[in-house]
Amino acid sequence: MKLYRTLLATAAAVALAPGTASADRLVLSAGHIDAVAPVLVDHGMALRVKDGTVAGPAVMREPDDVLLHVKPQARMTVPEGLPSSYAFLGAPGSDVWVLPQVNDANLLWAGWSSENLAPGAFKNETLRWRLNSVDGPGPVQLYENGALGEVRLFFDSADGLPDTDTRAVGTHAHFNWVFHQPGTYTLNFDVTGERPDGTETSGYANYRVFVGDLADLPPEYVYVEGLEPSYDVGATASLTARNGTTSRFTDFRWLRQCDGEQEPKEVAAGATYTFAVARAHDACRLTVALRDDAGRELLRSDEALVSVRSGTWGPRLIMSQGHADVLEVALDGNALKVQLKDDSGDEPVLRRPHDVLLHAKPQSRFLLTEDLPPEYGFLGRPGETIYMLPEVQEQALLWPGWDTEGVPAGSVEGDALAFRLLSVDGPGALQLFSTNSFGGPEILFNSADGLPDTTPMNAHAHAHASWAFSKPGLYKLRFTLTGRTTAGQPLDSGPLEYWFYVGDLAALPEYPNEDAEPTPEPTPEPTPTPTPTPTPTPTPTPTPDGGGQTITPPAVVAPTPTPTPTQPAVRPTLRLTAAKLRSRTLTLGARLTTRSRVTVVVRRGSKTVARSKARTVAASSRSLKVKLNRRLTAGRYTVRVSAQANGRTVTRTIKLRVR
Known about the structure:
Structural class: mainly beta
Organism: Solirubrobacter deserti
Signal peptide: 1-23
Shape: globular
Keywords: Signal
Number of strands: 51
InterPro entries: CHP03773_ABC_transptr-like, Surface-anchored_actinobac
Region (Disordered): 510-569
Helix content: under 10%
């Protein structure tokens, strides 16, 4: 059935002619293309845009390099009297924007091509084409008209995704692309096929589509410039909002969400935002929203986290945020050398453990819920609140781990040291645990069932675990590392003492006279419920929840009142399996459990050398392809991938070698 085009009385001037570049994307507005063209590459399958708008042979382009443009002239009015099979288009009289199945020289003619795949490359000569997600202002449909006007609707975001269609190898086809609102869309497609040996290979890509006049094209992203890694209280923060690509829109609104606030609040308008930094700004999340002429929000920046330096506690530096290897272990001759590596700034700094107070902020509160798997029962009962520095980095919190890369592989017996927790002095228990590949806990230390506890610490490795404290307050932990060199020389670090403070720093007591402190003794044997003996004076003080006691040293333990817990948001899960670079395109083997906003940063040593634009990735994606903002020279790099969803962020790293 033919749809009758509603002619526009006038057409606004087009800012960019078809085939011209917008930032680093080529704008395709008219002519023949095969938008989804699977090809085989070294690592498996990949998706390309087969651009036939050029003179001469078609050019294969990366989807990330292209903007598909649906002109204003593509607008159509749904007529009266359509068969019910066209109901997905909407009510008669409503507008849709259509790239048609039949070529219109004034519009983009977008199709499918699997002609670059050789016969026999896939079983049964078939492929599965899937639309995973649509991020945009309205629904999207793809449908075909048969020879007699019949309709085959194969992708429809209005009734839920993903949708899957079957296509043959070596085919070329066109169909109708329907968009229900003007604006910017991101379509995530994948194509999967089974090879003759029974293995599956897939290609994934995001396609960016703009519907409307290019004069109204918003920037691809906005970002915050000028944020320092951390601020002192009383300092002035001066931030600037920037468009990532050229756009006429400049109505920026600054939104801020601090701890305990349910929604972001608008705090300023304009391209700049300046404020005096207060303690309360620590861990506040800033975003910039860009609005159009009618005040509608076009897009938001990634969150920018404000970090306020915690200052000092007596002679100790307070570390509240960022990466820290609390045990930085090296083999120095026949002795173990243990320091604390502070990696929270631009450059790592080695410190002595007794020069640092490690801080678990109030934001580390974690509510134990009824649906927590029973194997996590060691953390407490449902309804109780603990404080946890998680194994997976969260930007607002301290991320403590350990590093034994200074102990060469093969230098110690069993390639491991004995890592022992001797004692925990504080108002509650400590559990140190990791999570295995199947989501279960691997308990390293649990002071609630008695100490000392011992676990292996692998040589020449870097690891993180979750540090869970049952109550707020001041803790003193004593560890030791022992082992034997492969030459038979015994190794012993001696006692290693670390201080943690859990809770609001406003309740942190004055620094004690450490010379007068009693030395805690290791717990001699396991007991069902640890109840450390307080010193004779003063009288033990009840903790805020009415249970347990404040123990050694009594002069400095000051538990923070437990705030009302809130249900934690679901944290995305991200796994990285491979990294490969071609030109500026970085392809990562990745699995995400939650639809997330993903950013990629590439570092060489401690210096950031390249990054990608933020993009939304579907939960079902098995690979991630991003374009870096600059080329990498030969060398070894660390790729850091952050996935943000539901207000939570997970970060993973993988090594990359460029030859």
